[in-house]
Every structure is written in C-alpha cells, then in structure tokens.
Amino acid sequence: MITIHGEISEIQNGFNEIVNHLSAFKLQKDIKINVKKSDKDVFVKCDKSEAVIEYNKPINFFRALGQMICALSGNDSFVIEEREVFETMGCSPEINLNKFSMEGHKAWFRYMAVLGLDTYLMSIPCAYKVEGYPYFGYMSGAYTPEEIKETVAYAQLFGIEVIPCVQFLSHLGRFLQWYAAEDLRDTEKTLLVQSEKTYEFIEACVKTLAESFTSDKINVGMDEAYDLGTGRYKEIHGTEGNQDELFFEHLKKVIDILKKYNKKVMMWSDMLFERSKSGASYGADNDVCEFVKSIGSDAISPICWDYYSPFEEQYEQMLTKHTDNFNDVWFAGGIWAWISNSVEYDRTILVTNAALTACKKVGVKKAFATFWYGNFANYFQGLLGLSYFAEHKYYQTISEEKIAKDFEALFKVPASAFRKLTDLEYPDCYPRPDYSVRDQVHGAASMVLLCEDIMMGLFDKDYEGKKFGEYYKKLALTYKEYSDKYSEWSYIFDFHRALAEAISVKGDLGRDILNAYKEHDTAFLKECADKRIPQVMRLADKVRDAHYEQWHKYYKTFGWQEIGRRYGIIEERCKTAISRLNAYLNNEIDCLEELEEPRLPYVHKWSHNNTTMNVLWEPDKIASPY
Question: Is 278 exposed, middle or buried (0-12, 13-18, 19+ CB in 10 A)?
C-alpha cells in the first residue's frame, strides 16, 4: 500500500484516484512517500519502504509516482531525476463520433497523469451543446456544460489542462446538414463567411466554451477549408472571391470574438500557408501567406501538424517556417488509429520519433498526439503511442527499451502485446509497408476481409492465390492467450480475437466460392450455403458483440449506430449469398451474374504504394463501390 505525507494538499485527491483505480499502484508491500514541493521537475528517491518525491507542478508528481512504480519492478532502492524537455505535452483524441463517457474520460486522464502528459485538447467540433442552436450536436451525445465542467474538474486533480478543440470554419458537416443551419452554410461542411448570422453563431459557441472550460485557450480549428466561398457564398455574391482574403478576414473576426471573452486563439496552421505548390496539403515546400504578417506574430498560436513524414529534416524545415513567423508554436503528431481496427505502431513510432526530435532541435516546446476518426481503432489501444510522446517530454534521447519496460509496469500488459494488435492488418502473404519512405499507406486487412462482399468481392483479383485462414487462426489463439493473461485489457484483445476468428473462415470464402462456381463444383457451393456462410454469420455476430462491449466500456452509445450498420450489412449480404446459391443449385436461375463478372484490381486513390489492404476512411466502399 502506498501512503503519502508532507506537502500533499494539491495532489491528495488525484493520488487517491490513481491508487484506487490503477492496479499497478496496488502494491503488496507498504511504501511511505514524503512529498515535497521544489524547483525539481521529477525527483524520486526510494529506499525500500521509504521514499521521497519532489516536484514543481502537480502533473510532475504523478509522473514521479508512475516512474517510482516502474523502477520498483526491478529494485527497491533507487534515485530518479527527470527534467522537462517540452513545456507542454499532451493528446487530442477526436471525440466527435466516439465520445468518451464520463468514466472514459476519467480513465483516460488517469493514464495521462502517470505518463506525465499535462494537456488534453478536447476535440469536439460538433459535440457540445450551444444555447439557441438545438441542432448543433443534435442526437449525437453532445456534451452539456455540466458534463464539460465535471470533465475539466477531474483533469485538474492531476494538473491536466483541458483545452476546447473546435471548428469555426469547416469540418462542420454534422451540423450544417440540418435545414436549421441553412443560413450558416456555404458548402456542406463550411460556414458562410461575411454573414452576420455566422458570427452570431460563433460568438454563441465561444460564450458556451468560455463558461464551460477554465483554460484561457481555444483551438478554433480553421483547417482544410479548401471549399471556402465556393457554395452559397458564390450564389449570393456572384463570385467565389479571393480565398485568402476571405479566410483572413474571417480569422480576424474570430480573433476579435475570442478577445471579447479573454481567450487566446490556437488553430491548425495549414490555411496560413500557400497552397499552390502542394495542393490541398502543406509541407516544407509551402511558404506562409502574405496575409500572415498582417495579423501579427502573437495573435494566434499555430499548430503545425504532420503525421506522415519519416524525415526529420522535413519537420525541421516546416517548424522553422512557423517559428520565423509566430511566437507560440505548437506541433501535432498522430497515433495512427484511423485506418482500420488496429493502431499502426510501426508508423506511429517512426514518425513520432522523427517529429519530436525535430521539435527539440528547432525549439518548439509544445506538442501533442492526435487521434482521428473514432469509427476505427479503439483509442485505448493508443496508450503505447502516448508513452512515446511522454518519454520525449522528459528526455532528449529516448530509450525504446525503457518505454517497453515502463509500459508493462504501469499498465500490466507487455508493449509487445499491444504491438501484436497491428498484426491483424498484415497477413503473412503480404509485405508490410516501408515507412521510411513517405506516403506509404498502412494496411486495413481486417476491415477488408471482414466487410468484403462474399459474392461480389472487390478485392478478388488482388487476392488471387492468397490464403488467409491459417494465419488468422493462429492470431486468434494469440489474442485469446493475451485476453486470459492480461484480463484488464480483455476488452481490447477479445475484439481482435473475434475478428481473427471470423476472418479465418470468411477471408478466403468468397474466392473459394468463385473458383468452385467456375469449376462447377456444386457440392462445395451447397456446403457453403448450408454450413460455411451460416458459420460466417455466427462469427460475425460474435465480432459485433465484442465490438459493442468494447465501445460501451468507455464511450457513449451515440456513434455506435455507424459501427453497428457494418454488421447489419454483413448479415444481409450473407443471407443474400445463401439465397443466391440456393436459387442456382435448385435450377431457379441459370447463372450467378455476380460471379460471371470479370474481376478487376482494386485501384483506390490511396493505393499508390500498391498495398491493396488499404481503403482508408471509406469502409462502406469495401462492400460496394457505389
């Protein structure tokens, strides 16, 4: 049992939450910790049953507490001292679709605390209630002011700042789809600028955020507004106008609104850069727009974001362009959880190390990890990725061996087990991408092989001669072993196990049916209709159940409907496949037209690295191209 005494008033409640909820802190032996405030960031001295922790701000106390637990796994007498390399390090999971429940947020903050992550950008573009705009966040589980206040108060127990991360220009499709938002709409996702009603709406949002959050900052978004002025704006004014002028005029108005509420402006920085060289993206070959100089270097805190490049020098060039023009620069990297059912750790670790090393060289002291699109991998899978961000916060040079050791000590599961989750996306008959080359898109095998239509397989040509069954059978056994051994994380491993079991049967079935049809093997087709496809349906239902349990452990129920319909499609298409095969076998139809159709390679706009496992953000396109 761990007990604390000394200067504990500001960390006592947070300490109680940690020791009551995290199993790693429920020690069999007694340790008494004397807590002292000092100018040290993280200092721990432990001599068997007595310890001293010195810290300068609450989050560093919890980092010290976590590091003590890590060290105790190998010794009972030691000294630890760490100094912050970054002033601020945190994370920003987009919770627009998969909104954390209150318990989800609390669990997340406890994990952040013991890693030493001090900033949480609460990414809620259309996910908070705004008085006077009932369709904003309607039927989506949008957070009320009371929920936000409770969330912020809990984070403050650990010294974690919660910053609202919203959108005041684009990425607002979930709101602008409603007729009630007609007067605010330029395009399906972008607000109408130069409209008084638009700025009344933005001020209502800012007022709500100012009343709900204690942070003096708001991330106003403003990224990827490439359709600005192209919709109703053009209809009203007869021209699209100069997009840069429209953008910066709008930005200045947003800045003025935030000033009224004493809030500082953070924003994604891509729209601050010229887009002529890189099209819709931005990178080291883009220069800042001339308009940037007109708003001043202190008016905003730009967030340089890049989750893609493995090249340290590219980050250095881009970050330098930011620091040359702005005084308070942030960097946003990413935990690659937004392509399939698994976090892509190979890519996450490679680009994170390159980016954060570049931040250190350039002198950017504020950074965070993003998670996007909550309809893919469960965010709690990403804790190992957050461990890398945390380690960079406290060390100039990180040790992956230490990260793995600490991860297991803190979370009671090996880092290798979390990395093994990525294997679900890479059957052994396909090579993994080489992420040392930019623009490699990572695999989404589990999404493709589970959701692909049995009778109309869009990937049949790509998978000719490939077999997946045995690979996924073995993988399912591995995940079962992990679930049994690391029961605290069974909700993660059980879903992957169910996926692997289903794919071990379904992954080859469509192509086996296609080949049997060509060879007139009616006995096999009958076996598929009577036994194999019903087996797929039962296994897919188990996947759905495991996914449902995983989702509802830490997420609100809102958003599940977008996940649940995937399983409805699988069931319906399996029923159709049975009906079609039986009709053919009973001579009710002369042929199966869908199996007569010549198979073509799946060429997707993101398939430029010839990895046919990726369909990126469009899982619905797996079952049908239309």
Answer: middle
- H-state helical runs in 412-456: 415-420, 445-451
| Residue 132 burial (CB count, 10 A) | 10
Question: How far is it, in rounded angstroms, from Cα 100 to Cα 292?
Answer: 36
Question: What single DSSP character describes residue 529?
Answer: I
Extract long-range pairs of 428-437: CB within 8 Å, 24+ residues apart.
428/471, 429/466, 429/467, 429/468, 429/471, 430/466, 430/611, 430/613, 432/346, 433/347, 433/609, 433/611, 435/310, 435/346, 435/347, 435/350, 435/351, 436/310, 436/350, 437/310, 437/609
Handedness of CA 443, 449, 452, 455 (dihedral sign): positive
Listed in sequence order, the DSSP H helices in 93-215 are 102-115, 145-156, 173-176, 196-212
pLDDT at 179 over 90: yes
Q: Are 407 and 416 in contact (CB under 8 A)?
A: no
CA distances from 529 to 93, 138, 514, 591, 609 (A): 43, 43, 13, 16, 37
CA distance 577 to 590: 16
Check: CB of residue 246 under 8 Å from CB of residue 237.
no
pLDDT of 211-257, one tens digit each?
Answer: 999 999 999 999 999 999 999 999 999 998 899 899 999 999 999 99
What is the identity of the amino acid at 590?
D
243: tokens are: 């997009």
Q: How far apart are CA 507 and CA 623, in angstroms?
A: 13
Whole-number Å distance between alpha carbons of 252 and 262: 15
Cα 28 to Cα 292: distance, rounded to the nearest angstrom = 58
